[in-house]
Design a protein that fits this description.
The structure holds 2 protein chains of 2 kinds.
Chain A (H helix, E strand, L loop, with lengths): L2 E2 L5 E12 L8 E12 L3 E5 L6 H8 L7 E6 L7 H5 L2 E4 L11 H11 L4 H15 L14 H12 L6 E5 L7 H16 L3 E6 L2 H7 L2 E6 L2 E7 H7 L4 E8 L2 E8 L3 H10 L3 E7 L4 H7 L2
Parallel strand pairs in A: 1-5, 4-8, 4-9, 6-7, 7-8
Antiparallel strand pairs in A: 2-3, 2-5, 9-10, 11-12, 11-13
Helix pairs in contact in A: 3-4, 3-5, 4-5
Chain B lengths: L1 H21 L2 H21 L5 H25 L4 H5 L2 H6 L5 H33 L6 H27 L2 H23 L1 H4 L2 H13 L9 H5 L6 H28 L4
The chains are: A alpha/beta, B mainly alpha.
The complex binds adenosine-5'-triphosphate and magnesium ion.
The site of magnesium ion (MG) has 4 residues of chain A, from helix 1.
Chain lengths: 295, 260
């Protein structure tokens, strides 16, 4: 039985979720997700980061009720209604490595998904008209899906995810298998969804993608939550006390790193030596560096 | 909720049907039909006596076997392929109860199967009439029972494929098919007749495992014995109940299943 949160601004909440798999009776069960708690707040774009095998897909499968947690509880927000069926009509989901019915055309597939979400054929057409050009897939919608490339599958899958205008959008590695131009386009679409007031939750390995488009980030390792908070906050917390000074001396561009306390003194002595200061910038760690350092 | 669930089943059935028609599996059936025709024609050319009767016997036998073959072929992937390919996620992530998925899948595939059998029957019957056969109502019933038998096989192999591998579910289905056809012969042996406890066991078989021999009315057809309406009716309902039973079992398993 699904439970519902009473909170207004929460779309989805994980309360102390653990999932263990026991493939072998003799072996010790494997813990894929370990005491995971977090909330997905309405209107936010949240990145779900973690290395291969960290437990991202397993968590998402539990959120979608494909598999059930070993312990803990998943709460659906009031915004999503009071019943499972109602909640799922307001959620959109894109699986990782999407694979769809190969002998349906892209258009038929979208109609199929629309009909399952109680959307009229007319409404489906309207949504396709809006989104297909943005996904750059409109030219291929009358072809059978088996002729699609990996990136095209990802795009038509994403399109079908939006076909019923969901409030909460859950994407499992939406940018995987898409070329750099495509990544940019898909990221633009995610940002547009945010402007439309949607809540987007997506998993990724690529820290810079998350840094670019997310408000919040969840970082998990071996099924445990290591960080949950805003992207700005984690970057500000990890700002270094070092400054990078760039200057010209004897017609050569030089740069040095100086500690916060010594920066004024060093600059003074540089000027005394006849250097021409160009810039003084605080050293900033990217999310990438921060997470690589997290133990 | 039940109402909207049934509506979703119809949607799933419709697109399952579309997907299979798009996969051009029907061409294979036409091919099979031609082969059937050829074999039947050759068989009857080499026999003396009443050619149309031989053609009917042989044709209906081949029809029954190929229908069951098609049922196994399309039925084994019905649910397991959806789970392996993760296409099932696209459906259960929508406001669709899990029972609708099972029901819709069986609905769509049953339609495909029935269409296949009708095509094969028309091919077989046209040859039969061409060489001078005459129509009897039992021909109609034979085909109806071939359809029901194939539907039972379809549901059987589909249900088994959720709990075991595809290969094993095909093997189990073939085993049960052979068993279900030989059980009535076993009942008539002296060995069984003299042992009431074994007889009781075999009687119970009908309630648990499918008694396929019931659907085989070919010998009645050949010797023009009339079959009572009561027999036809009870066999028909036996098949129907068995199909419903299998679908309920697979719904029960699927509701509990972890989809990973
Ligand atoms: N059905 C299962 N049975 C046993 N172990 C499983 C099962 N599903 C997942 N696991 C294990 O759980 C762990 C987490 O897997 P999961 O797919 O959630 O990782 P992920 O974070 O999505 O990784 P990736 O970035 O590679 O997609 C892995 O070690 C995986 O082997
Ligand atoms: Mg994953």
């Amino acid at each position: 039985m699904l439970s519902f949160s009473t909170h207004n601004i929460i779309m989805l909440e994980f309360v102390n979720i653990t999932k263990t798999f026991s493939s072998d009776i003799l072996k010790k069960p494997f813990t894929a997700v370990d005491g995971l708690s977090f909330t997905i707040d309405a209107g936010k774009t949240i990145g779900f980061l973690g290395a291969n095998g960290a437990g991202k897909t397993t968590s998402i499968k539990m959120a979608m009720d494909f598999i059930r947690p070993t312990s803990g509880e998943i709460l659906y927000g009031k915004e999503l209604g009071n019943k499972k069926i109602e909640a799922f009509s307001k959620m959109g989901y894109l699986p990782e490595r999407p694979f769809f019915y190969p002998h349906l055309t892209g258009f038929e597939f979208c109609q199929y998904m629309g009909a399952l979400s109680d959307i009229s054929a007319k409404e489906v057409k309207k949504q396709i008209k809006k989104w297909a050009p943005e996904f750059k897939i409109d030219f291929a919608l009358d072809r059978q899906i088996k002729t699609y490339s990996k990136g095209m599958l990802q795009r038509v899958g994403f399109l079908a995810t939006l076909i019923h205008d969901p409030k909460l959008i859950i994407l499992d590695e939406p940018l995987a298998g898409v070329d750099p131009v495509g990544r940019k386009e898909l990221k633009d679409i995610i940002e547009e969804l945010k402007l439309l007031g949607k809540t987007v939750f997506f998993s990724s390995h690529i820290v810079s993608d998350v840094e670019e488009i997310c408000d919040n980030v969840l970082f998990i390792k071996n099924g445990k939550l290591l960080f949950d908070g805003s992207v700005d906050k984690i970057i500000n917390e990890n700002i270094k006390s070092e400054y990078r000074v760039r200057y010209y001396k004897d017609n050569e561009l030089c740069k040095i790193l100086v500690e916060d306390k010594e920066k004024n003194k060093s600059i003074e002595s540089l000027i005394k030596d006849g250097a021409d200061i160009i810039s003084v910038e605080q050293e900033r760690m990217s999310l990438e560096q921060i997470f690589y350092n997290v133990k | 909720m039940l109402n909207s669930g049934l509506k979703k089943s119809l949607v799933i059935g419709k697109y399952t049907f579309k997907e299979i028609i798009g996969s051009k599996i029907l061409y294979n059936t036409l091919f099979l039909g031609m082969a059937l025709l050829l074999v039947t024609y050759v068989a009857f050319s080499f026999t003396y006596g009443e050619p149309s009767r031989v053609a009917l016997d042989f044709g209906m036998g081949c029809l029954a076997l190929s229908s069951v073959g098609i049922a196994i072929f399309i039925g084994v992937g019905i649910l397991s392929k959806e789970i392996d390919n993760r296409t099932v996620y696209m459906i259960v992530s929508r406001p669709v109860p899990r029972f609708s998925f099972i029901l819709g899948k069986f609905l769509g595939l049953s339609l495909v199967l029935i269409l296949n059998i009708i095509i094969l029957s028309l091919i077989t019957l046209s040859l039969f009439f061409l060489i001078g056969g005459t129509f009897s109502p039992l021909i109609f019933w034979t085909i109806v029972f071939i359809i029901i038998e194939s539907l039972v096989v379809l549901c059987l192999v589909g249900t088994l494929s959720i709990v075991t591998t595809q290969t094993m579910s095909v093997l189990y289905t073939i085993m049960l098919y052979i068993l279900g056809h030989s059980i009535d012969t076993a009942m008539t042996t002296n060995f069984v007749k003299n042992r009431p406890e074994i007889q009781a066991l075999l009687d119970g078989y009908h309630f648990v495992l499918p008694a396929f021999y019931k659907f085989n009315i070919k010998s009645f057809l050949l010797y023009e014995n009339n079959l009572s309406l009561a027999y036809l009716g009870s066999t028909f309902s036996y098949g129907l109940f068995y199909i419903i039973f299998l679908i309920l079992v697979s719904i029960y398993i699927f509701e509990k299943k972890n989809l990973d």
